[in-house]
Amino acid sequence: MPYIFAVNEPNYRICIDNRIFGVPKTDKARSQIQSVKKDEKLFIYVYGSQRIYGFYKAISNSFLEKAPQKGPWNYTATDEKHGYYPYRLFIEIIKDYQQGIPFPKIERLNIGLDRNLLIRKSVIYITDFQANIIEELLKELPVKPVDGFKIKNIDEYESLFTQPVTVGEGQEKTLQILVQNNLGLLEDKLQPVTSYFNIQYGKFKGEIDVLARDKNKNFVVTEIKVENLKKDIWSQLFSYSHVIRNIYAKFEDVDVRSFLICNGFDIKTIYSYPEIKKLLRREDFLRVFKYQTDFKRKISFEEIPIIIK
Questions:
Q1: CA angle at 99 for the pair 95 and 104, rounded to the nearest 5°
Q2: Cβ atoms within 10 Å of 242's Cβ, excluding its own
Q3: Residue among 106, 88, 90, 92 at smallest CA distance from 45
């Protein structure tokens, strides 16, 4: 699955020169980079010039650098503020297209990519269709020769998935990472592709907690609530799914499913849930789960039954 890393101009050069992509020490950035797997196709978006460069390949899974202050980010107060970008992965330059593509040129193609979707994001998931369009545009540019830079001892770095969940911004973000790391408990071969995913459709804007794909490549919009669900959850969930269907799924001829994870229901929501399920052409297109967790390492899920006694 392809991704765009969003950086400023100085960080762009650091990333390319050191063959390493890093994100700030925040829960959101961590959850975004840990969906990127080895061998994924990558691009870079530079905020200042508003251009996309590429393309690159991840040659490691994401990892937590134990001594990030040693570099390569350690030159400015901004680097220190961001924890010297401790969540990282190693990359290989596949093609170093010069100049980059002006992002407005991509926006005019109306393929679901908008600069607003990149605001305050470190890693942005894009579909294969979108990645192929970007790559075709890059091929119109001259190519810079790639030097023989090599990274040593990649296998020594630990994946983020082996690290304990230690977050500092409350139960909601802790739950977010626990769910993302354990989606396979909800359904076999369910894989996260990104988190905190910005969407925009006309005047409608939103942020999906976890966007995943199932064994049939269908998109799975997953919303997470620490507290009990309220009755307006259905409009939130289905509006997100509608946007994914009309912007992303249509280009790949796949479907969209909707999952909810919560602590419980209010009474109106619990009674509306089975009725909604009966109206669906396929009941597995909507699934609701109750979680149990210690907000540290362990989490389990129980699907809410639709039979009301």
A1: 110
A2: 16
A3: 106
Pairwise CA distance, residues 238 & 14, whole Å: 41
Query: Beta-carbon neighbour count of residue 89 at 10 Å?
Result: 28
pLDDT digits (tens, 9 = 90+) for 64-74: 998 999 999 99
Report the C-alpha gap between 90 and 83 in whole angstroms: 18
Residues 122 and 194 reside in one and the same domain: no
Tens digit of pLDDT for each residue in 29-60? 999 999 999 999 999 999 989 999 989 999 99
Domain residues for the domain of 31 are 3-161
Answer yes or no: do 96 and 149 share one domain.
yes
CA distances from 188 to 44, 61, 67, 95 (A): 32, 21, 36, 35
Asked if residue 309 belongs to a domain, the reply is no
pTM of this prediction? 0.86
Q: DSSP secondary structure string, 139-170?
A: TTS-EEPP-------GGGSPBGGGS----SS-
| Position 195 in a domain | yes
Q: Count up the domains in the chain and report the number.
A: 2
